[in-house]
Amino acid sequence: MIPERRHRMHIVVYQSEHCPACRRVATALIAVCRELDAATEVRDVLVHLEQAARLGITRPPAVVVDGRLFGQGSTVADKLRRKWLA
Q1: Which domains, and CATH codes, for the chain?
Q2: pTM of the predicted model, to two decimals?
Q3: Tens of pLDDT along the chain (86 residues)?
């Protein structure tokens, strides 16, 4: 069950085409974002390197929820699912 929210979440997924974990996790991340009915963007971390650094991203894939770093690394999809869909 999805908890009630006052606004639609905005989720940005930072990934890299050169990252094996990103390729494995990207599909799961997008599926979770759809389940949450969140506004979702996927960004290449290398193209948005300065912004990623400001957010504190050190390893993709990374998830930013409403402008704040939520998690990063290969377990981030599971973490996102547990937080809002458990």
Answers
A1: 10-85 (3.40.30.10)
A2: 0.85
A3: 454 556 789 999 999 988 888 888 888 888 888 888 899 999 999 999 999 999 999 999 999 999 999 999 989 989 988 988 86
